[in-house]
User: Fold this.
Amino acid sequence: MRYRVDLRSDTVTTPSEAMRRAMAAAEVGDDWYGDDPTVNRLQELAAELTGKEAAIYVPTGTMANQIGLRLHVGGAGHLVLCEGRSHVATTEMMTSAVLSGVTYRAVEAGPRGLTADDVAAGMHPDAYFDVEVVDLISLENTMGGYAGTVAPVEEFRAIRKIAESEGVPVHLDGALIFNASAASGVPVAEYANEADTLMFCVSKGLGAPIGSLLCGPQDLMPEARRLKILFGGAWRQAGVMAAAGLVALEEGPGRLSLDHARARRLAEGIAEIAPLAVDPDAVETNMVFADVSSLGLDPMDAIELLGREGLGVTPIGPGVLRMVTHVDVDDAGIDLALGAWRAVVAST
Ligand SMILES: Cc1ncc(COP(=O)(O)O)c(C=O)c1O
Assistant:
């Protein structure tokens, strides 16, 4: 490991002992044929936890999102309404064009995500020519572009009503939906109930090494499976990884509030060292954004300096660095991170 404490992402975790044991002992089969019993168990559990009829296990959140998008739009030339900083419209913009044939009507709505008013106003961008037709609404929770803020379920309900009246489906990028649930107390299934399909990642805060699940109605699953194979996701004896996913769903959700408390302590500590860099009240889940331009530091220099002190962070926007707490970071790790910030700020 390059860093003594690595807060670049919650994807940097290594499998727990229980995961490694489960992986070694996993019963497997060829998932292309649908006969990997461990994959099938994980899919059943994901469907149960989200309240959906079925789920499909795929290698990445990106693949799960793209299958979700394309399932609803079916081909090229479609507009998806979403929040401007959402993952699909930023990191996955090119992927969306290539794999799903969609482009975005992206509304900068802010840290709570799209509101029902944004959706009502955004549904008919092209009243005169009927070329720019919104065929799908894509929501996200937590909001990764806004330091992991939680989008309210009440707004999801209001958006769903508009979507239904317009006859437009809703996809939810719930890569970190278990974090949203831990922070808000709203069950994952309640968020999921306001979307036709949702995806979540076991490979992020939940701590598994690999994998995401796309959940939705049974009648969409044959096409979801076809798209998974089309996108190169027929991954054979995937039960080795699914076994870790099952452990992640047992061990993970219950401990996410610890990550959230540590993120809050980290933000409060940095705010004491560099008051303008961080707003601790903006921390709702496991992410902290720090604006180093307030310290007169170039973000890439700041990353280098913090790295030399043993702390891994990542750039997220102009002048802004991201830190994400996760299962491999304990209280001592937060102390170490704060020590790194103290040393770097003292040297500026
Ligand atoms: C909100 C969100 N959606 C989708 C993804 C894509 O997941 P993956 O990196 O597994 O493709 C991420 C990854 O960070 C994410 O944060």
